[in-house]
Amino acid sequence: MTSGAQANEDRVEDKVVDFYDNFTEVFRDLWGDNLHVGYWHDASDDAPIGKATDQLTDQLIARLAPQPGRRILDVGCGVGEPAFRLARTADVEVVGVSISTYQVGRAGERSREQGLADRVSFQHADAAELPFPDASFDGAWAFESLIHMPDKEKVLREIKRVLRPGSTLVLADMFSQPDTELTFQDIITTPEMSEYRAVIERAGLVVREFTDITANTLAPQEVRESIAADLLARKDDVIKMTGPEEFERMVDGVRVPRAYGYLLATVTTD
Ligand code: SAH
């Protein structure tokens, strides 16, 4: 028999909170302030990871293309870096939510440090129960955050609820391929690409664009080697986050591209 307390500990949401409350800084130290993969334009693009992760943000900004004055929801905001980039590119208000209270605190401090606090704010929330009224945003993105949410249909319906009719939602997320081997399996759920699209449609959203950008997210060899070297140099810290087996898998996964997929989707509420 499983006790109530144990059942609670098994919730993915609690594991995600634990992970990001404890390891956000380890990640930032390794990867930078963007907690998502990089985007390389083509074979001649040798951007280091910090620049490549901004380049992925730029792909989402171009798809969201918000008009000045609009209010945008950032679902799963990390420490706010994509929200700041969006607010610097477009004259919009951004509200970010994360299930990690640590991240919300850091993101808020960073917003004040960067002089953006009048337009970019953060709050603690579970994406499955957003603390906002119906139709209170003009656009949204979920930037590599749905990966942590097992019931994506429910979350997408919830995001749709808080969007005004005619709004755009941009999704960036991993999907699985038949031989996918990802790290952190206990805190991620990745459907295959066709199932992902079906989930979006079941949530009542209209898919306008659905692009497999996996090839652009595979870092050039040089960048991979530098990330692997950084991982090994910070082994003592990183291993606290991964455990020894996951650490080996992580280093391997950086050296040899894994068979995961990555998609960008632009969807509208109607
Ligand atoms: N979008 C950010 C962070 C990506 S990491 C960036 O690109 O930098 C995944 C993010 O999703 C984390 O901030 C994590 O706290 C958040 N997240 C995961 N599950 C969540 C949930 N159920 N509700 C809200 N946020 C969640």
Concise structural overview:
Keywords: Methyltransferase, S-adenosyl-L-methionine, Transferase. The chain has 270 residues and is an alpha/beta fold.
**Helix content class:** 40-55%
Shape: globular
Largest sheet: 7 strands, mixed
Strand element count: 7
Which small-molecule species are bound to the chains here? S-adenosyl-L-homocysteine
Task: Please list the strands of the largest sheet in the order they lie side by side.
Answer: 3-2-1-4-5-7-6
Rounded to the nearest angstrom, the distance between the terminal CA atoms is 46 Å
Task: Give a verbal description of the structure.
- The chain is built from 10 helices and 7 strands.
- By secondary structure, it is α/β, with parallel strands linked by helices.
- The chain has one domain (3-268): Rossmann fold.
- Helix 4 links the parallel strand 1 (71-75) and strand 2 (93-98).
- Helix 3 (49-64) crosses helix 4 and helix 9 packs antiparallel against helix 10.
- The model is unreliable at 1-7 (pLDDT under 50).
- The site of S-adenosyl-L-homocysteine (SAH) has 24 residues, from helix 2, helix 4 and strand 2.
Task: Note the topology.
Elements: H1 4-9, H2 12-31, H3 49-64, E1 71-75, H4 81-89, E2 93-98, H5 101-113, E3 120-124, E4 137-143, H6 152-162, E5 163-176, H7 193-202, E6 206-212, H8 214-217, H9 221-233, H10 235-255, E7 260-268
Parallel strand pairs: 1-2, 1-4, 2-3, 4-5
Antiparallel strand pairs: 5-7, 6-7
Helix pairs in contact: 3-4, 9-10
Residues 13, 16, 20, 34-36, 76-78, 81-82, 97-100, 103, 126-128, 143-145, 148-149 line the site of S-adenosyl-L-homocysteine.
